[in-house]
Design goal:
Radius of gyration: 25 Å
CATH superfamily of the largest domain: NAD(P)-binding Rossmann-like Domain
Order of helices and strands: EHEEEHEHHHEHEHEHEHEHEHEHEHEEHE
Distance between the termini: 14 Å
Number of domains: 3
Strand content: 15-25%
Helix content: 25-40%
CATH topology of the largest domain: Rossmann fold
Length: 392
């Protein structure tokens, strides 16, 4: 019986992926095997030593101590792309809101106390101040061409916009999904120099903190728009407010309100709505639940932010998995321990990413406690899980 601790409300469609006969799932549970969450901040949490996996029903993992979990050999799973359509729709809405001054226009109408013909006259008299511009022919810069960025870029092309994308680490999978009409910028400066609007779709890591700053905003065409439904920290708010005041920026549309931003009439700050649709929450919950289940039962890793993708089909054999430091001769030492125990390796898969590696080994018989201790004693081994034969 696996125990799953939930730290937030998780869509029931995802939780149904855990069969009741093999899983106990609750918001209060002792000695959990895994944790599934959305926005709960785990950085100050005492994470039980029994936890072997963490899954976030969303893309970003800033609320999870990923580095600490890596040192413990605990993979952290996320759900990249599961909320891509929801964020894409909001980013496109942001373009339209900024281009047509929709929010200011709505507030103007709400403030009118007139009725009948007087109201009609006030509407006609006031509409000129909200005159906007159309998107076709304008250039959109898309920072980050992951699952969301690709969808935004393709959608903007369909609206008649020119699109420039920047992502030096774009995956083959995403590159194949990206329209050929998207121009690839060699640098961020090139993107900003040519953009009438910029939208951000990158995680918040050290290299992306305040990547939208004074210098880059100064490169943009006058009256440009900035859209941020990624993370608040990728934008320097002080630089944005200055650019709004001097007319460099026309509008800033974001999902991360602050008192200073909300007080500026040229800022449209929303309450973190990026993935707030029933469909996105359901998709994220299903995706992360399925990957957690596959890891717990079969040891396979897919969509982990700290461990390599590593999937080996189950056969009629006993399986062990090892998370370890990416150092030479690790597989050789593991194989020696198994050979000394008289176990034959039926299949083996070893993958690495950066300083971490992960190994799946199928052997022809049960692995004794003595053999497991032999493997655990190898310098660099972080965790060993004995999954036994496949569940039937």
């Amino acid at each position: 019986m696996f125990k799953i601790l939930t730290l937030n409300h998780i869509a029931v469609e995802g939780l149904r992926r855990f069969p009741r006969e093999r899983y106990e799932v609750a918001s209060e549970i002792s000695h959990p095997d895994a944790i599934i969450l959305r926005s709960h901040d785990m950085h100050d949490m005492d994470i039980p030593e029994t936890v072997v996996a963490i899954g976030r029903a969303g893309a970003g993992t800033n609320n999870i101590p990923v580095e600490a979990m890596s040192h413990c050999g605990v993979p952290v799973f996320n759900a990249p792309g599961a909320n891509a359509n929801a964020v894409k729709e909001l980013a496109i809405a942001g373009l339209l809101i900024g281009a047509r001054n929709i929010c200011d226009a709505r507030e103007y109408v709400k403030g009118l106390a007139d009725k009948g013909d007087a109201l009609n006259k006030a509407v006609e008299a006031g509409k000129k101040q909200f005159s906007g511009f159309e998107l076709p022919g304008k250039t959109l810069g898309v920072i980050g061409l992951g699952a969301v960025g690709v969808e935004v870029a393709n959608a903007a092309l369909n609206l008649g916009m020119k699109v420039i994308g920047f992502d030096p680490k774009i995956t083959v999978r995403n590159a194949l999904q990206l329209s050929a009409g998207v121009h690839h910028a060699e640098t961020l400066d090139e993107l900003f120099q040519n953009a009438d609007a910029v939208t951000c779709h990158v995680p918040l890591v050290e290299s992306t903190k305040k990547m939208v700053n004074h210098d880059r905003l100064a490169l943009m065409n006058d009256g440009a728009m900035l859209i941020n439904f990624a993370r608040g920290g990728v934008v320097d708010n002080d630089a944005v407010l200055e650019a709004l005041d001097n007319g460099q920026l026309h509008t800033y549309i974001c999902d991360f309100p602050t008192a200073e931003l909300s007080a500026n009439p040229n800022v449209v700050a929303l309450p973190h709505l990026g993935a707030s649709t029933g469909e996105a929450e359901q998709n994220c919950a299903i995706m992360v639940a399925e990957n957690l289940k596959e890891y717990l039962e079969n040891g396979n890793i897919r969509f982990s932010v700290n461990f390599p993708e590593c999937r080996l089909p189950r056969m009629d054999a006993h399986r062990i998995t090892i998370a370890n430091a990416n150092v030479p001769n690790m597989v050789g030492q593991i194989s020696t321990c198994l050979a000394d125990a008289g176990l034959n390796i039926e299949d083996l898969l070893n993958k690495s990413i950066g300083e971490l590696a992960y190994t799946i080994v199928d052997v022809n018989g049960p692995v004794s406690n003595e053999t497991k201790q032999c493997i655990r004693s190898i310098d660099g081994v972080l965790t060993l899980r004995n999954l036994g034969p496949p569940v039937t």
